[in-house]
Amino acid sequence: MARAVPSATMRALSCIGMTRLGCLFSVEVAAAQGLPSSMDGLRLAVAVRKKESREGAVQTMPSRVQQGAADFEETLFVRCHVYCSGGGAGKPPTKFEPRPFLLSVVAVDAPELDLGQSTVDLSALVKESTEKSQQGERVRQWQMAFLLAGKAKGGELVVTLAFQILEDGGVGLYSQPATKTAALVRCPVTRI
């Protein structure tokens, strides 16, 4: 009888022979805004976690919705690894293994409410940053607005995503200092 192989095992096998980059992923949570007036008084929090695991999940302190907005002004950090291959001889890696994270808004007093969750692929951000670096500009921050769902439909979660490479595995991704922030990007809600 064949047994299913856990996804963590498959992920580990798929990364054999790839270079491991140590990263610190940060999510600066500004606010949930444009919320319906029916949500005023509700306490909300924002959670960030790796998509494949609930381990290492982080969450903001609760913030009460007032006049259609909940202000957080808090930065969450998640330490992780991003795997890449290709490149070499002074060129950036050409292939990155996906590293998805889930961002969700949680109603602290009513956890049964589904306000939507969005997926962010950290490896795509790292790849975009290395490509821009080759063009002479360096971007390692992205301002984004994720659309909310359910009772919060019409609202959005405004965040700034960033990362720092702690260990580059000898790849040498960057040779100049970071200077720019990407423009605000609006992202649809993802149902999982």
From TrEMBL:
InterPro entries: NT-C2 (IPR019448), PMI1-like (IPR039614). Signal peptide: none annotated. Transmembrane segments: none annotated. It comes from the Eukaryota. Residues 13-165 form the C2 NT-type domain. Pfam families: NT-C2. This is C2 NT-type domain-containing protein. The lineage of its organism: Eukaryota, Viridiplantae, Streptophyta, Embryophyta, Tracheophyta.
